[in-house]
Amino acid sequence: MIPEIDIYGVYVPTFALVLLGCYVVFRLLHRLLSAGGFYHRVWHRDLFDIATYFALLGGVVLVMEHVFR
């Protein structure tokens, strides 16, 4: 993975941008699942949300490692 990205002279860690991007995607997915009534079938909503976010984050990091190798 690229260690840092230069944004107008400010060096930002790549992982921070990945975290932010995954959070935005997760919030969109969360709204979609809420609107569809999926959470009525989930036993522990907060645990499911955390697991979904980290699964999304892990998948993105694995893909980025493979692409930027």
Structural write-up:
This protein is 65% helix and 12% strand. The protein has helices spanning 14-35, 45-67, and strands spanning 4-7, 10-13. The chain has 69 residues and is mainly alpha-helical. It is built from two helices and two strands; from the N terminus they run E-E-H-H. The radius of gyration is 15 Å and the shape is elongated. Helix 1 (14-35) packs across helix 2 (45-67). The model has no long low-confidence stretch (mean pLDDT 93). The longest helix has 23 residues, at 45-67. The protein has a two-stranded antiparallel ribbon.
Summary?
The protein is mainly alpha-helical.
Key features of this structure:
69 residues; mainly alpha; two-stranded antiparallel sheet; 2 helices; 2 strands; 65% helix
